[in-house]
C-alpha cells in the first residue's frame, strides 16, 4: 500500500513511550539551505499513561505536596488543604477590615464578623498561631500584641514572620523598591486586624472550654479596646464584650450565686456603657445593655434591671439580633413584675425578630416557651399551630401538656405535669412563672362550668376543682366575677352560682380593638423595617456629582453643535439634546 512502510507499524500521536526528546540527525530530515552540522530537535509530548505512571511531586518542608497548596483528584477536581484554606479565609477578612477603615463603612466589619461562624468549625490553636505568625513580623509595631495572642492559646514558642522553606529560592540581590533601592517595609497591621485576631482567640478558648484563661485574656482585650477611640472598632468591640461576659458566666461559683464573677464585671460593663453613649457607639451600647440585663436576671436582681431600662434608651438603629435579645430580656423582666400585657408585646416582637437560621434555634425556643407561659397567665390559650412547627415540636412537648391541662381546667392534671417536667421547666427558667398558673387553672375551670351550667352549687365547684372547702370556692368565684372572667352572680345564702346569658360578642367593641391591635403591629413593623435599612455613606453626594457632570457635558456638546464644531456624524448617531 503506498505511503506506508511494511516493516514498521504506525505510531499514534503522542504514543512514543519514552517521553524524551528525539534527536533526528538523519540527512533526509535536514532542511535545505542549512549546514551539515545543524541539528533539529523534535519534542514529542508524553502519553496519558506515562503521565499517570510518573512519580508524584516531592513534598515541601511542611509535608504538603508542592502544588500551590492543592492536589488534583482523579476526576480533575482540585483538593485544597483545609489548614491552608482556613488560614486564607482568616486573611481574606483583613482586606474587608482595611476597606472598612479606608471607606469608614461598618458594613465591611460586619461581613468579617459574620464569617467567624464558618471559620470556628475549622479553627484550632495551631491554625490560629500560624495565621498570627504570618500576619506579624518581629519588627512590626504590633509584635507585642501578637505575642500575647500566642501566649493565650499556648503557642508562645511560634516565631513571628513567614519562615522560608528549603525549597524556596532566595535571590542573592535584594529586591529594590523606590529610587534609592531600599527594601520594601512590611505593611503596618491596623488595630482592627489586631482586635479581629483577638476575637478569634476568644472563640478558640471558648470552644476548647478554657474559661479561666479566656476570662483573663478577655480582661486584657477589653482594656485595650477602651483605650482605642476608633469608630471603625465599634462592631468588633461589641463582640469582645460579648465573649467577656460569656466567660464570666462559666466560672465558678455559677449564677445565681452572689459570689459569681458576673457580679464583679458589672462596673466594667457600666463604664463601657457610659463611654459608648458619649462616643455614640451604637453597636457597643446595644450589646452592653443586653449583657447587663442578662447579668441582672441571672442573679435575680429584677429591680436593678428595671432601673437600667428606665434610665437608659436602647438605640433605635441597633442590629436586629440585639433588638431581639433586648426585647426577650425586657419581656422576661415584665413577666416577673406581673406586667403580663407588656411582657406579651415584647416577647411577641422578639419571636418575630428572631433569626430564621438554624444557629438561632435555641433563642427561638426560649422566647416561644416564655411567650406561651405569659399567654396562659393572661388567660389566653395559645394556638395549636405553634406546637406543630417541625423545629419546635419536640422542645414544646411539655408545654403542650401544660396548655392542655390549663385549657380543660383540670387541677389534677396540671399538678401532674409540673411534677413530671419540673427539671425541664427549671432549665428553661419558667418554673416560678408556671407555679402562678394554679389560679388560672381554677379560673378556667370556673369559666367552663359557667358556660356548661346555668346554675351550679358551690359544693359541686369544690368537688370538681379539688378545692379544700366551700369557703375557698366562694372566694375564688367572687374574685373571678370581679375580674370579669365570668358573667355570673353569686348567691351566698343558697350557696350557688348563677350564670348570665352571653350576648353577641360582635355587638361589643372587642372585634374592633383586636383589629386595631393588628393594624398597629403592622405599622410598627413597617416603621422598624424602614429604620433598619442601611445605605452607603455619602452615596447621594456621588450620584448628584455624576448627574451634574453629565449635565455639564450635555451643555458643552449642545454648545459645540450650535457653533458648528460638531455634527451628528461626530456624535455617532442622532443627538436628542438635553
UniProtKB/TrEMBL annotation:
Q: What keywords sit in the KW lines?
A: Proteasome
InterPro entries per the record?
Answer: CSN3, PCI_dom, PSMD3_C, TPR_PSMD3_N, WH_DNA-bd_sf
Q: Which GO terms describe its biological process?
A: regulation of protein catabolic process; ubiquitin-dependent protein catabolic process
Record's keyword annotation contains Repeat: no
Cellular component (GO) terms are: proteasome regulatory particle, lid subcomplex
Q: Per the record, where are the segments of Basic and acidic residues compositional bias? A: 1-11, 18-38, 172-186, 552-562
Span list, region Disordered: 1-76, 160-186, 552-578
Q: Which SUPFAM superfamilies match?
A: Winged helix' DNA-binding domain (SSF46785)
- Tell me the SMART domains matching this sequence: PAM, PINT
Q: Which residues form the PCI domain?
A: 324-504
Q: Name one GO molecular function term.
A: enzyme regulator activity
Of which family is this protein a member? Belongs to the proteasome subunit S3 family.
Listed PANTHER family:
26S PROTEASOME NON-ATPASE REGULATORY SUBUNIT 3, 26S PROTEASOME NON-ATPASE REGULATORY SUBUNIT 3/COP9 SIGNALOSOME COMPLEX SUBUNIT 3
- Supply the name of the protein: PCI domain-containing protein
